[in-house]
Amino acid sequence: MIRVVVAEDQSLVLAALSALIALDGDIEVVAQTRDGAAALDAVRRLSPDLLLSDIEMPGMTGLEVADIIQAERLKTRVVIVTTFGRAGYLKRAMAAGVRGYLLKDAPPEMLTQALRQVAAGGKAIAPELAASMWDAGDDPLTDRERTIIRLAEEGRTNKEIALLLDLSPGTVRNYLSEAVLKLGATNRIDAARIARSQGWL
After folding, report:
1. Domain residue extents for the chain
2. Burial bucket for residue 121 (CB in 10 Å: 0-12, 13-18, 19+)
3. Which Gene3D superfamilies match (predicted)?
4. Which partner from 22, 51, 81, 185 sits 20 to 30 angstroms from 159, CA to CA?
């Protein structure tokens, strides 16, 4: 039996994914979670074979969860299922040790096949994305710059970001200036737009 934790912040999609993969007699959904922190907690507690996760979730993204799973050397393998078909996301996923990367519009049988493949030690990547990964540029942002750009994209001021991250407003301004320069952007909003379009957020 393949034991799976499913992480997805949209309730209908979470229920649909869980019901779909539970139809197969050899796959068991052991937990459903709606944010990254809960997904990580379930993986640590239950030690499932697989984590099936979306990328964008409250608090912590699926890629950040995958990074921690890799850093802690947990045995759970990560499969991402997302609407984001950008090569930048795929490259970040591969760097985080993700073993499967599928798009949400994939045929249902492809999902369960991918779960079995990854559980058996293989990899499963949406074929339409695999080729594009080689042409994608490298992500120039640091993790700290990425976090600050996300918060700026939400409309938070330098002072608010500084309070959240325990930094000085001047340090936040420096991080944002560096990110804007790296991305060839005109301002913080333009930087967020460019980074998101490349799959770097």
Report:
1. 2-134, 143-198
2. exposed
3. 3.40.50.2300, Winged helix-like DNA-binding domain superfamily/Winged helix DNA-binding domain
4. 185
